[in-house]
Structure formats: C-alpha cells, structure tokens
Amino acid sequence: MAIEEPNVREATFAIEGMTCAACAARIEKVVGRVKGVKSVQVNLVSEKGKVAYLPGVTSEQDIIQAVEKAGYSAHVFTEDMEKHEREKKARAHRRELYTFTFSVVLTLPLVIQMFAMLAGAGALMPSWVSLILATPVQFFVGWRFYKGAYHSLRGGAANMDVLVALGTSVAYVYSVALVALGRTDTYFDSSATVVTLIYMGKLLESRAKRRSSSAIEQLAKLGARVAHVIRDGEEFDVPVEELQVGDLVRVRPGEKVPADGVIADGATSIDESFLTGESMPVAKQAGSPVVGASVNQTNAFTMMVTKVGADTALAQVIRLVDAAQGSKAPVQRLADTISGIFVPIVLGIAFVTFFAWGIFGGWTHALVAAVAVLVIACPCSLGLATPTAIMVGTGLGAEHGILIKGGEHLELAHKVNTVVLDKTGTITAGKPSVIDVWSAEAASEADLVRLAAALEAQSEHPLGRAIVEYARERGGVWPEASEVRAVPGKGIEANIDGHVVRVGNRRWIAEELYIQVPDERLAAYESEAKTAVIVASDDQIMGVIAIADAVKPDAKQAVERLRAMGIDVWMVTGDNERTAEAVASQVGIDHVMASVLPQDKVGKVAELKRRGSVVAMVGDGINDAPALAEADIGIAMGTGTDIAMEAADIALMRSNLMGVVNAIELSKATMRKIRQNLFWAFFYNVIGIPLAAAGILNPMIAGAAMALSSVSVVSNSLLLKGRRFD
C-alpha cells in the first residue's frame, strides 16, 4: 500500500479549450513536468483537472501557467463555483446554437449547387458568390478550430483542431485561387460543409456530455432553499446558507429538510430516496436523525440542525460523485496513449496521400483525398469512449444509493469473483430482535410478553431491550414490577402482583432453580442460532421467547444472484461455528469462516487474494475497516460507521445486500459500454482513414461521419441510464 505524503495538497481546475483526448493528454504531460506536481488527471468530458502537488515546491498559479503553456486556459475550481460554471456552459451552448444556425443558412446554397452540378445542371451562381457565402463559415464559424489549433501548436502538440483547420483551409485557399483564375470547379461547398458538420457534431457532443454529467447537477438541485428557523420563540424564514449548527427549524409536510439534524419534537415519515434509492418513506420520531434534501411526508416537526453546508450528507455525496466522475479507469490509458500520438500520424498519412495522388492521379484528386483523411481522423470518439461511460455509470449509481469513489473501482468491480460478507450488520440486521414466542398452556402469549417486558424494562441488556421493543410494538402495557434483582449472566427476577417472575437462560432456570423446561423446544431454537429466554412464574414455566439477530429479508436473494454470476460467497464472523453455520444455511452460503477475531479478518481476505481471487469485502463496522481496505474492492453498508465508509471503495447508502449485486452489475454494464465505445472508435478510424486515403470518401461525408462517431459514442454511454435496479 502506497504511503501518502502528509503535505500533498489537491486542487481542482476548470480547463477551457479542450476539444479531444489529445488535448487532455497534452495538458497532463505538460503539467506533470512541473516540479512538485505528484499526479494530474484531466477529464475531457467534465473539463476539469485534478492535480496533487507539494505547496512548498509549486503553487496553483504555477499549474495554471503550465496549462496556459500547453495552449489552454484554466482557473481554480471550487464547489461554490459549480452553479456559475453550469450557467456559463449553458450560455456558451446557446451562442453555439445561434452560430450553427448562421452556418447552416450560408452553407445550404452551396450544398444545393453541389447537387445541381452533380446532376449536370451546371453552376447555379457565380463562383464569387460561393466565395462570399463560404468565407464567414470558414473564418467566423470555423474560428474555434483555428484558435484551438493555434494554442495546440503553440504548446508543442497537434490536436483535432489542427486536422480540421488544416483540411478546410487547404480546400478554401485552393478554391480562392481557382476563382482568381476564373474557374467554377471550386471546393467551397466542401470546406463550408465540413466546418458546419463538425460544428454540429461538437454541438451535439456538448449536449450529450452535459447529459452524461447531469448527476451532479440534479443532486445540486435537491437541496431546500429556505428554512423556517425558530429563534427566541419566533419563527421566520432564512436562506438555507444562513443556517447554523444548533438552530431549531420547523419542517412542514411536503417540504424538504433544509439541513442534517435530529428531530427535537414530533413524529413523521420522510422520503430519503435521493440518498438511499429506497422509495418507501422512513418513520421518524423525536431523537431520529434526518438528512437535508429529504422530503417530509406526513406531519410537521421541529428539528435541531447538526450539520450545514459542506458537512451535510448531500454535499458529501456530491463530492464523492464529482471525484468519481473526474477519475480515470485503467482501461482509459490505452485510449490516452493512442490519442497522444494519433494526430501526428494522421498528418503524416495525409501528407503521403496528397503527394501519392498528386504524382499518380492528379493534384485536384490529391487535395480532396488529403482533406478527407484530415477530417475523418479526428480522435474525438476515442477520447470520449471511457469518460462518458464512467460519468453515466457513477451518476446512475449515485441516483440509486451506490456511491463509487473512482473509475478504477468501477472497472475493477466487474472482475470480482469472490465476495466476503461480514455477518453482523451485513447479512443480519445487526441488533437482536424477537423472532418467535412459545407459550405454555398455563399462559397466553400476550401475558407472557407483558410479564417479560415488565422485568426487562428495568434492564439495559440488549436481549432485554429486544423484548421491551417487541412488547411496545404490540401496544402492550405491562404491570409494575417490584423487588427487581438482576442475576449477572443468568437473568432477572421481580415481584409482580405477589408472584415471583423470572426471565433468564436455561442454566439458571432449569439447572439452578430446577424448574422444568421444554427441552425439545429449546434445542430447536438453539439449532437455529436463536437465543432462548425462558419466562417462569412461581416455579412454573410460562413460555419461551426466541431472540436472534434476524437475517435481512433480501440476503438470501442477494446470495443467489451473486452465485448465479459465478461469484463465490464467503461469510466471516466472530460468532461460534454453530451460530455461523445456522445463519449461512438460511441464506445459502457454503463457505464459512467462524470464530474470526476482528484483527484476523484482514488475514482471511489476504489469504483469498493469494489464491488468485479478486475479492470484494462487504462490511459495516469499525472492525471491518482494515479488511475493507485490504480487499480488491471494499464495499461498506449504509448503516455502517464513518470509518468503514471512508475505508471502502464503494459505499451503499441502503443497508440491504442487493446493493452489492447492483454495484457489481453496474460495473459489468459500464465496462460493456466502454468496450463497445472503444471498439467503434477504433473501428471507425481503422476503416475510415484507408477509405479516405484511397480517395473513396468525399470530405463532406468524412465530416459527417466524424461528427456522427462522437455523438454515437456518447449516446451509447447514455443508454446506461435506462438500466433498472432491484
């Protein structure tokens, strides 16, 4: 495990001017050379770069200067700027739409003339009119390509803009020369159409990229805007940003909870689906925690604010999703490597194509073929293949309560072939509850529970609390108990209405007090890993209450689904072997590691890894944190501690095990999309470039194909959004 330097700082930068994967690769290369920079990741889709650096050696300004040296612009990005950046991009998109409309209006007559000439009708307008129409398209609409090419070449590299600017400029300048010579067979239609089509492709690509990264935008919109604060006995409205820890806030039915807190007064049900993905409202009462952006369903209540701003659960989720979407999966390295050397190779192919056709087929045909090569080879789709799929996958996961902390974890999860499940709190609910009640002929079940609750209400033992909770849920009212005496390790006794009532274990009731107990019933409970609590009154057995840490309702289904995927499922627990085997048999787990001390869980995970397994560890407690960190993929349950959630690679906001299944299936689906995207991106270039070099493709067709390839890759990634979860 790598040791992080304690004084390394990380900063996020918004980067402008990138047009393809070669741009992102160039920035990473230049910034990575800056002294003191430890790591740099640039995401083409989100247009952000994350840089880890040593503050005493370099600064944020040095990094910005390095980005500018590479030919792009950058500024430090903070969470507070998110809304401003979205609005800025929206305005830019509207401007691009107007520019594209202008380009279409000027280009359409040129295209109509081209088809007329192909049909043998001759030119519909003088060549100087074509020059007037094509010039604004070439230099006004196409200015973004010239600007991008200039910055790229100034930075010592070549990107997509270089290919577009060079190809269309050659066709335009050649056509101007033909006009000067009085000829009508110009290529203004080709240069203008290519600029318009590629501009359209960038417009559609931009729109699709915004959709692929919409998860953060949707999360950011979830928060409440106004809070009803109670101060000095008066209620008044304040913006959520002005809330302070300790404030009392009134939340009415149908309103969003303004911040994280605890209910001080009242009871209600709250929709927390934005956080957990669970559609059913959760019952809340005084003392229950509530999270900001959840929706109050039924009754008004008063809450005390405990977390505000960046400390709230919603803010933390947004940070996790943003970090995951900005990260890179290892599979992207191939695309980045190829993109970095792709443009120079294409320039070489275009150069050879031009001179080969010029020598053997005529210079006019040479020009057309070379321009087609330059246009069709733009590596946009290659650069978009991986990041768009990761952004959609992590965003979709967040919408369903699956927080994946990085693209590398999303990729690795699909390789998992062994899942290790902690028992308590993961397979089971994590707290004892009454599973069954057996009453003797001398007593009813209701009387049995009432008497047991009367005694256990005086106790703090977990089993006692389970009995009291069971009685309370059934609306029971128990009698007053007097002369209460706890017998450590055995049970509790008291006087109720002149009767000596005892609640305890077999060893005390049967072996020490010699009260006859139902041995067969007790043996059956114990074989099922249930704790039998015996209730007796005046030396007469009244019944038995069976208590256990109940298996979660979805545990068996989750295990079956994992096994159906070919994944080995193990259970690890500190419980004795008999209890462990009983729980494992209920959910269908064959591999059990029982009596494992917390510090030994790491060793068990490491042992499975040494056997060649790709291991996912699923847990929820502090004692699971080391094992979560040791596993190839650590998955923390939503009911877990902050330490477990921090150590994990994937955090499930719900406490059910189907989240594990959904996380692995999401990883598999995302990886399928990435492979499909990369295949089509490579296939497109492998087929398109030779066809263009052979003179088969017209530059206009090449431009349309290039635009279509980028849009199709992003659209294919967006299909992930239609995936359904259990």
Describe what you observe in this structure.
Helix content is 51%, strand content 20%. The mean pLDDT is 82. The protein starts with 8 loop residues before the first strand and ends in an 8-residue tail after the last helix. The strands form five sheets. The protein has a seven-stranded mixed β-sheet with strand order 14-26-25-24-15-22-23, sandwiched between helices. It has a six-stranded antiparallel β-sheet with strand order 6-5-7-13-8-11, with no helix packed on it. The protein has 726 residues and is α+β, with helices and mostly antiparallel strands.
Please provide a brief summary of the model.
The protein is α+β, with helices and mostly antiparallel strands and 726 residues long. The chain is built from 26 helices and 26 strands.
Strand content: 15-25%
- Give start-end ranges of low-pLDDT stretches: none
- Give the strand line-up of the largest sheet: 14-26-25-24-15-22-23
Radius of gyration from the CA trace? 34 Å
Spatial gap, N to C terminus: 35 Å
Fraction of residues in helices?
A: 40-55%
From the spread of the alpha carbons, the general shape counts as elongated
Number of strands: 26
Q: Which structural class is indicated by helix and strand composition?
A: alpha+beta
Integer average pLDDT: 82
Largest sheet geometry? 7 strands, mixed
Q: What is the tally of helical segments? A: 26
